[in-house]
Specification:
The chain is α/β, with parallel strands linked by helices. It has 3 domains: 105 residues, RuBisCO large subunit, N-terminal domain (Alpha-Beta Plaits), CATH 3.30.70.150; 245 residues, Ribulose bisphosphate carboxylase, large subunit, C-terminal domain (TIM Barrel); 124 residues, Jelly Rolls. The protein contains 16 helices and 26 strands. The strands form 7 sheets. Strands 18-19-20-26-21-24 form a 6-stranded antiparallel beta sheet, with no helix packed on it. A 5-stranded mixed beta sheet has the order 2-3-1-4-11. β12, α12 and β13 form a beta-alpha-beta unit. The longest helix has 22 residues. The radius of gyration is 28 Å and the shape is elongated. The termini are far apart.
Amino acid sequence: MDTITVVYRLTCPADQVAQISREIALEQTVEVPDRLVTCAKIRNEIVGRVLEIVPVSQTVDQFDVRIAYAEELAANNLGQLLNLLFGNISLKQKIRLREARFPAAYLARFRGPNLGIAGLRAALGVFGRPLLATALKPKGSSAEHLARLARDFAAGGGDLVKDDHNLVETDFNDFRSRVEQCHTAVRFGSEASGRPCWYLPNISASGGELERRIEYLVRTGIRGVLIAPMLVGLDEVRRLAETYPLYFLAHPTFTGAMFHDPTHGIDPGLLLGTMFRLAGCDGTIFPNRGGRFAFTDDECLQIAERAREPLGSLAASWPAPAGGMSYDTLASMSDAFGADAMYLIGGALLSDSQNLAASTQRFLNRIQELYPQHQHAEPQSLLSACELPSSNTTAQLLQHLAFQPGFQWDGRAVAAYKTNGVLPFRAVARTELIGKAGEQTAFDVRYFEIGPGGHSSLEKHLHTHVVIGARGQGLLSSGDKSIPLKPFDVAYVPPLEVHQLRNESTEPFGFFCIVDHERDVPQVP
């Protein structure tokens, strides 16, 4: 019978350690006293087996206890695995879960990280040095400010820029607007530096909304996300990682309760390294030594070791120490973590927000000095921006949107034109037809309708428009020009052309508008 072997560190008197060890084996499997386990099959195949009790030292009442659990009790579910290893006994005291070793057959059920260390290196074309990353903050900043930070970091040659974990929008359109601005900004910054930089939005939502946002990111061409496994759920993260072609960077929020008492909880390396890796996380963020959290050198190194050590056929994941770093500590970071690490540097970079590109370049130059053998190569396309899971029927099936009276279409709802209030407009409604419902397109087709006396926002943007008249009469204004539009007229709006559509008639004016699927956010002229 295959077993999962676990090591607990117990802090207790020597004359009680055997009894407590047996109680743990019972509590975590059958939850009844020993005297009630009368069935031989249950006693031999279900109840955990205490294999070994080893004193930690001669002066401290601490013992490492090794217990074996039947592998089938984990039920191929990471939530149940965590429950088996530390469920009820987490409510007790002075029990520290330190290690878990899994049989090969159990590990084979997990796909693990989509990219891991080797895959992300190939995708970025960066070899032989640590990666340089930062976070967009603080919460409350405008989307324009965050996008500017993202652009400047990418322009300075940074490798990954992620959302802060508390950047969360309730409304999908607000989320999409901010993400589009930051993603576009990173693309421009990457073009300036000549090196790829990835933007990782924070994914935090409930139920189907979480999946809706992830599918939007995949269609947009975004390659990775920041996710909090202890908030979303370990097995839900695993499902998402196995379903969507994304790089998943794990945030450690809500794990601290497991670490603060050195005699109780779970070792950081096991939770943030091994468990997050089983969940499919390609990288794991943890508080670096010397930062505002009290992680020790040993704990940080343990996390890095567990993230990268052999674990069945699972790819190694990136240890991402965060906080407590400065330009002057890069050398000691290099000595501690080696080349296969991601340095998540916030304040030391962002404090020079007026010249963030130069600050980023300075940090990157120092990292490259420490790793003179590093190489930059042509990035490989390992994750498809168009690939959506085959279970997503809207993305895979031929669609027919039947036209209905009143210029409406089956399966498509009329929505507000804009929600952020930055660019004024009047009496405009929008219907997203193709491009926002999972279709694998490089463009979006929308229908807009402007009521009598209404107008769209006066704006400009880098992407182009094609406007096709559908009903009524309208005007396309650009500079001192005003072009009348009637049904089936076609107009092209070039990049950065200031324009506006108006309805000066007494009837609705409707038109189709075709734009790039991946596009920049409209600007005030």
